[in-house]
Automatic annotation (TrEMBL):
It is found in: Cytoplasm. Gene3D superfamilies: 3.40.50.1400. Catalyzes the ferrous insertion into protoporphyrin IX. It catalyses: Fe-coproporphyrin III + 2 H(+) = coproporphyrin III + Fe(2+); heme b + 2 H(+) = protoporphyrin IX + Fe(2+). PROSITE patterns: FERROCHELATASE. It is an enzyme of class 4 (lyase). Fe(2+) binds at H214, E295. GO terms for biological process: heme biosynthetic process. Pathway: Porphyrin-containing compound metabolism; protoheme biosynthesis; protoheme from protoporphyrin-IX: step 1/1. The gene is hemH. InterPro entries: Ferrochelatase (IPR001015), Ferrochelatase_AS (IPR019772), Ferrochelatase_C (IPR033644), Ferrochelatase_N (IPR033659). Keywords: Cytoplasm, Heme biosynthesis, Iron, Lyase, Metal-binding, Porphyrin biosynthesis. This is Ferrochelatase. CDD domains: Ferrochelatase_C, Ferrochelatase_N.
């Protein structure tokens, strides 16, 4: 409920309150595939201390001297291959917007709840959308980093950014952050349904299902990041839900960046050796990604498939992420309604 401005004493600043905001936040994405858009995006992303933990004194000369000169062109070409040409944006932004819109429809029975969406890097920024929620009278905000498996490089940096915004506010909204939901039954069932759905369209049967998660450096894992265990738990629960044996489902880690050792087994290396093991029909999915994006469409559906076929594979299918499917929104709605308890 908002105080009607006409009832306020003369000279009293306008006050709005009484609503609850739900802010969905994904990683982010460049505004375009050109050099400068890519460079701006990568500079913001790769100067985040939660993403690259090396000392700034060591990392910045490499970032500004080498990475930001070469990588924008290379990665821009990869983005071009998976760009949503209809809306002139990446699919990550298309799906995140659609998730926000569909979530708002699902929560229509809660008239005091306002749903919005934003990105950790690039636009729309977390600060911009938190400002917009406040302006609409949200004095409580549920912040939902869209990562089923908590990691410092993803969930924590979204939370950091929201708290950084709060540091500058005179009237801070109360903030709740959504915890890891890697073992939520709604999430596991939705993943299993997506596997069954894709496999039902095939004329062949996979010998192996690979669950490929984004990796993190080994050093982050050794420093206590729980991400590794959360990925393994998701994969185990999915295997049990599907009724597969341990041989029928394998977990791998993708998207290595830089010279460090990352979590293993690596997805690309695994794809090279499967056929030699006698595994020639493979399905692969990315349970850690709420939306399809560069890392799933280009690196897995594209590159990983090519590696597999080049090394003797015969059949390959990529199972899409949950995206804005009915099941995908069911998962997000289940988590949001649970975390809103006591506020609505
Ligand atoms: C050290 C670098 C990186 C860490 C650690 C990292 C962790 C991490 N990332 C995701 C999800 C996504 N990453 C995406 C792209 C991407 N990731 C890195 C680096 C690290 N990620 C880079 C440099 C990039 C940009 C592309 C590139 O230059 O290779 C994306 C896709 C964004 C898109 O617009 O499509 C996602 C999503 C997770 C879940 C994670 C750790 C758990
Ligand atoms: Fe990443
Ligand atoms: Fe673990």
């Amino acid at each position: 409920m908002n105080i009607v401005p006409s009832k306020l004493p003369t000279g009293h600043p306008k006050v709005t309150f009484g609503k609850v905001g739900v802010l969905l936040v994904n990683l982010g994405t460049p505004d375009g595939t050109d050099y400068w858009s890519m460079r701006r995006y990568l500079a913001e992303f790769l100067s985040d201390k939660r993403v690259i933990e090396w000392s700034r004194l060591f990392w910045y000369p490499i970032l500004y001297g080498i990475v930001l000169n070469k990588r924008p062109q290379k990665v821009g070409k990869a983005y071009e291959e998976i760009w949503n040409k209809d809306l002139d944006e990446s699919y990550l932004r298309t799906y995140t917007r659609s998730q926000g819109e569909k979530m708002a429809e699902r929560l229509a029975d809660l008239p005091n709840v306002v749903v919005d969406w934003g990105m950790r890097y690039g636009k729309p920024s977390i600060a911009e959308r938190m400002d917009a929620l406040k302006a609409q009278g949200c004095d409580r905000i549920l912040l939902f980093p869209l990562y089923p498996q908590y990691a410092a490089a993803t969930t924590a940096t979204v939370n950091d950014k929201a708290f950084e915004y709060l540091m500058k506010q005179r009237w801070q909204p109360a903030l709740r952050t959504v915890p890891t939901y890697h073992d939520d039954p709604a999430y596991i069932v939705a993943l299993a349904n997506s596997v069954r759905q894709t496999l039902s369209t095939l004329e062949w049967e996979p010998q192996l299902l690979i669950t490929s998660f984004h990796g993190i450096p080994q050093s982050y894992f050794k420093a206590g990041d729980p991400y590794h265990c959360f990925c393994y738990k998701t994969a185990r629960l999915l295997r049990e839900e599907l009724g597969y044996t341990e041989k029928q489902l394998r977990l791998t880690f993708q998207s290595r960046f830089g010279p460090e050792e990352w979590l293993q087994p690596y997805t690309d290396k695994t794809m090279e050796t499967l056929a030699a093991e006698g595994i020639k029909r493979v399905a692969i999915m990315n349970p850690g990604f709420v939306s399809d994006c560069l890392e799933t469409l280009e690196e897995i559906a594209g590159e990983a498939g090519e590696i597999f076929m080049h090394h003797g594979g015969e059949n390959f299918v990529h199972i899409p992420c949950l995206n804005d499917s009915v099941d995908g929104i069911n998962v997000l709605e289940t988590v949001v309604r649970r975390e809103l308890q006591g506020w609505v």
